[in-house]
Write a structure and sequence with these properties.
The complex is a heterohexamer, with 3 copies of chain A and 3 copies of chain B. Chain A is α+β, with helices and mostly antiparallel strands. In chain A, 27% of the residues lie in helices and 30% in strands. The model of chain A has no long low-confidence stretch (mean pLDDT 95). Chain B is of the alpha+beta class. Chain B contains 6 helices and 9 strands; from the N terminus they run αββββαβαββαββαα. In chain B, α3 packs parallel to α5 and α5 packs antiparallel against α6. Classes of the chains: A alpha+beta, B alpha+beta. At the A-F interface, β1, β2, β3 and β6 of A face β3 and β5 of F. β12 of chain C pairs antiparallel with β9 of chain D, so a sheet runs across the interface.
Chain lengths: 259, 276, 259, 276, 259, 276
């Protein structure tokens, strides 16, 4: 628990450094950490990707099965996103049902994918009102060093883009790659006092006042946003954060697309 | 259910004369009615009707936080529980929190955390309960707006009220305050909450598809609307406390002196068929 | 918690007053509080009622859906009653799965309705053994100032009597009001030492030794009873309580019937 | 299942000669057999066969109450857990408490609360466990009756034993002690529990349809039956403790001196195919 | 809790005695306690048995119903084994969902029956891929005086061997006894320091370092094993324990078979 | 699914030349690769690929045990949580522990309890987490083997590493280290874990059908294999710690001096498409 108390001294140090445009790990304020993507890590999954964002490490597996559509969307496949914050990844994570943190995380990742229409879910309808593909995105956080929103989102996007639907095993014709049509990229910014830091590390995240995640697509359009933590943003800050998210998103997108 | 496909394709949400299906213009709020002090046991409470939404908010605290190991020795916890009654939606909702409610509870808790003077009440919790009795899109904004009044009714010291509203996009037009059909068949929804006096954004979510330009239009509509809603919040408190609170709300509430309801003020013990 | 400790002084005061036939709020010992009923409060429900019993305030919504009957009652609809003691209503209520108090409450309300045959459940059979109407009575306690047994029961009865079955939406002919045939009224009496108080307020309830709920129908016949708390009744007391319940029930019934 | 409709319509529960389907008259109990002290680990225990019911009761305590925050500094908690074994009913019951079990546990706890001398054992709990091994209607009465013997076997000081029985109405006749078919197809059931020495009613429930007159008939039958069952409870304790308890039960148990089983008394380590 | 702390003195005493080949209750080290079996104790079950192993007392009921087979075993019935450690049986048992102890116990009993092919589960297939018999083994521990592994296993075997499938009630021809083809017997040995004690009593179990359960069939073949507790065995000890389990199993098997 | 019946009947798991379907002989292990120190937050970690299994293990502690009432004043608790990722098996596994995982967690906890010097760390817990990322039979052996390396990587003082392997029977032949098809269609499986230096058996389970003679053959194969796996465990630690640990592992680790990783040792921050 004491690990969770970041001393005011540390906070002052990070802030003083940041006011001169620097960060503890040498990045600029608007610079994300290095992103590494390894696809098809798990053979038992229909698609998978392991993503490192700095030292944050997540593994995402996609499973597909055939089931019923929701009554109000009879012509579209079903998407289900879960995040498990397994206790392996951090001394502060505990086993048990997902806590509000994990639920928010899963729902924000899910919205980025769903609202950007990344996967054409209508093409995952098999028989309207009766049979559709169900897509499970399971996100396993292995090592937590800050900014799970982006790491999990990158993992999900990369895993989906490597997914082959197992149609043959279901007697539904040939296996086919998921119909991916858009490329959402999530970029999270933390606010410490009056400074904005892109892709906060664990230490930065712990001392942040507020957080804003912005997911943009390949046109720079906004597909999802989520503000978090108990601080606030000015409207001007919100606009600056969106502009940064558009720019950083453009840099990261190719890393998720390349196979 | 037979016709959903049809609806999805044909649904025109904006008429040729620019009016929405319920007759509103793009920058028009649904009717809002707020009443403060509607419950007896809670330390503070408020009821809001906002279009087809009927939402009740109650506040307990600052009171000793339970369980003890959750207590923060330096400040109060601000905890919100947003809940939908099983009968508040067309298909009965099973009792108990679903994932959506958990997320909404979290972001509303965070929104109020930035305005409550938490440091004055270490080891306590300020517990906010929002019950959606009838839902028609925008329940989190309605609940947040009512909870804000309930906090003031409970005399919890705050920097200011919080006011909430959403804007979205339907038929490619950016519109204020979507109702249920507009939310279901529209293209984007963007709820926010703001501290009206400072303009600080304390809640912001968005899903759908907005260009940066459209986003700014939506925020413009919402920010404008919160000014009107803020007045309704203040009116509700004025009606409940006649003079006292009105004076107080002209100034920032002094940090150390929680607003106290007049003890002689009788509470409504009855209600008409529409009221609460 | 200390709120829950009612001082012996208060108990002595209430008892002394009651021994002279009076109560703190001015009622006679056998006089219930004022009952107010507002029907059709919730448009998303098939029926609803908000009931105030003194300052106790409950909202009841009725939802109907189509489902399978229980195998041992193939010709009757299904009734399901839940009570949520939401933490809004009292500092002593907590979020979470229903505790024994809420379960007992729901079951006693349910028995009053079920055993009085208030709703003719056989007329809610659509196709024997296959399709019946399922009736959900959801009771939301908004403000708790004592005697939930009666407040919840009145709310359920009033809500049921305002319910319109949504048959048309299910392709089952025209909408129709629920077939209401009987009018159960629950009356609860608390015992403090040797005194019996009808419709106890919160303070009276807290210091009560025993509690007896008696539900009678429009003929004065007994349809359900439930004794509670750790005290006891003499048989003579039980009989007096039933007689009072019959009389008070007659007074309250019209309030629940009027629409 | 095919014939349920038929049964519902045709089921005659009372013959033309006034006998019930199992041959009993309206005021006749099913056969009852009680045995005290049947388990080794529990502080007290009893087994009852009552018609087709087979029920085991055990008592632990007074022992330190857990968790600590539940302890009452002024008195013992009396807590009952009523449970049905999965195989005790015709359709397998999933393990764990259902809503019915929770309610029954609550009313039995309350029934015993009024007879145990709780003030003698502050901060402790007296834990009563009732396990229904085979059910045939009336399990709460059988369980309560057995638990009462188990409490005495455990030496828990009480004002008196509690004795329980139900009456009901079948084919418009008020009858004592309904069995399963009579309960399923009858018109009313009214379980009660009483302190035989004082006549105090400590448990009373009813569902169905009884006129006030019929209710009084039913209570008359039950009160009468509890006298006979009380004797069987005392007999079971006498058989277990030979002389000692018999003497004690003639008088009220002295509050400060818990009944102690004779330490040399050997427990049964075996049983026949019918026994427990 | 203090009840759970077995003094080192007691441990020393038991060990000293055992080093001379004796036990507190007079048994030899390789001698199980007396086994008593009462069949068909519960009429509401398709089969049942109450077993005492010394003072350990368990009641096992078998229920059968008709359901779907698992997709990967379309031609075999389904077996489901649960153990409830009800708080009646010991001051250390608590109400609530099964703890790891109870889960391990149920799984080890289940494996002994399943792997020995005691019941021919293929003969419990009614229609391949569609309808099979489901066999619920519910184990109710009534009085806990040590070695539940063997007591529960004996109860399950005896109950199964007395089970009559209720085919007639399901319209599936005549009732029939379960097709029992093998007779697994579980024998558990506890290790205290360097000594091995068969069928440990509660006191012996509390001070044991390690535990090994070996289930053998009527040919002496091994069908299931489970090592437990935080101590270890040498390989030589494992072999000695198996040989003892074969011998003791031969003695106990007739007690489970007789009806 | 259509052909399962067929497979069950026809599946030949061993060829006429004595080779298994994946080409191995009866006493041959699948390929094993172990890497130590692969996670940053955990106090110790290891990754293992064993045939088609991919398993990650992490260790935290000794750290203060939570909740407090679980603390043992005389020694550390050794607690393992074995978990399968939802995507690690062909049919998606629902998140959260099933009964199988609970049992495996228990027997692995017990296996490590006998080698960790628990008395040195009263009131603490040593928490071992095993995550199966891709499963192909033998996951508990792989997990245990990796966890052993993670414990050493965390510097937890132990008598020795624990090494695990399984043998079984397929087509009536006793074979080492069954893969998934062999496990599904074989006749017996017998996982064990051993302390290589002393030969102490700390985990032993078996299901299926083995004569006593076959069991001894299986144990012989497993014991022999653990010697080879033990070397791979030591190699993984040697690669991570160059010299230090190698020297230490030649001797028993001195009880009071926990193994410390060299602080300057950089951790891998990247990986190839196959690695972790």
């Amino acid at each position: 628990m004491s690990e969770e108390i970041v001393s005011e001294l540390m906070r002052a140090h990070v802030y003083r450094l940041a006011s001169t445009g620097q960060r503890v790990d040498g990045r600029r304020l608007d610079e994300p950490r290095k992103v590494s993507v390894a696809r098809s890590f798990v053979k038992t999954a229909e698609g998978s990707a392991r993503v490192k964002l700095g030292n944050t490490d997540v593994l995402v597996g996609i499973k597909m099965s055939v089931g019923e559509p929701y009554p109000d969307t009879p012509n579209t496949g079903v998407l289900s996103t879960s995040v498990e914050l397994i206790p392996m990844a951090s001394p502060t994570f505990e086993a048990g049902p997902p806590r509000p943190d994990a639920i928010e995380l899963a729902r924000v990742v899910d919205r980025g994918i769903r609202e950007s229409k990344m996967v054409n879910m209508e093409r995952l309808c098999i028989t309207p009102k009766e049979k559709v593909w169900i897509l499970f995105i399971d996100i396993h956080v292995l090592d937590y060093d800050g900014n799970l929103f982006d790491a999990c989102s990158y993992g999900a996007v990369a895993a989906l883009s490597s997914t082959i639907a197992p149609a043959k095993g279901q007697g539904l014709g040939d296996d086919f790659p998921l119909p991916v049509e858009h490329w959402p990229v999530s970029v999270t910014t933390a606010k410490i006092k009056d400074l904005l830091l892109v892709d906060p590390s664990l230490d930065e995240e712990r001392m942040a006042d507020a957080r804003l995640t912005v997911t943009t697509d390949e046109n720079g359009d906004i597909r999802a946003m989520q503000k978090g933590l108990s601080g606030s943003f000015t409207y001007e800050e919100v606009k600056r954060i969106i502009e940064t998210a558009q720019r950083v998103g453009r840099d990261i997108r190719p890393l998720l697309q390349s196979s | 259910m037979e016709d959903i496909e049809h609806i999805e394709k044909e649904m025109k949400l904006i008429n040729s004369d620019g009016r929405r299906l319920d007759g509103r213009s793009f920058d028009e709020l649904r009717p809002i009615r707020i009443e403060a002090g509607v419950l007896r046991r809670a330390d503070g409470s408020a009821y809001i009707e906002w279009g087809g939404n009927k939402v009740l908010a109650a506040v307990y605290g600052p009171r000793e936080a339970h369980p003890r190991h959750l207590q923060d020795p330096a400040r109060a916890l601000v905890q919100c529980r947003y809940n939908m009654a099983p009968f508040s939606v067309s298909d009965r909702k099973r009792p108990g929190p679903d994932r959506r409610s958990v997320e909404i509870s979290k972001v509303i808790s965070e929104a109020f955390s930035s305005v409550v003077f938490k440091e004055q009440f270490p080891r306590t919790s300020v517990d906010i309960f929002i019950e959606v009795l009838q839902a028609d899109a925008g329940t989190r904004c309605a609940g947040l707006t009512a909870a804000s009044v309930a906090l003031a009714d409970a005399g919890v010291p705050m920097r200011d009220l919080v006011t909430s509203c959403a804007s979205g996009k339907i038929d490619d037009v950016v519109c204020l305050d979507l109702n249920k059909d507009e939310d279901n068949f529209g293209d984007a929804d963007c709820p926010m909450a703001i501290v009206p006096r400072t303009g600080d954004v304390v809640l912001l979510q968005m899903d759908g598809h907005l260009t940066y330009d459209e986003f700014q239009k939506a925020m413009g509509l919402s920010i404008d609307a919160t000014k009107r809603i803020y007045e309704m919040q203040r009116d509700a408190l004025r009606r409940r406390y006649s003079v006292t609170l009105e004076d107080i709300l002209k100034e920032a509430p002094p940090a150390a002196a929680p607003v106290e309801p007049e003890p002689e003020q009788p509470r409504e013990d009855d209600f008409g068929p529409e009221g609460i």
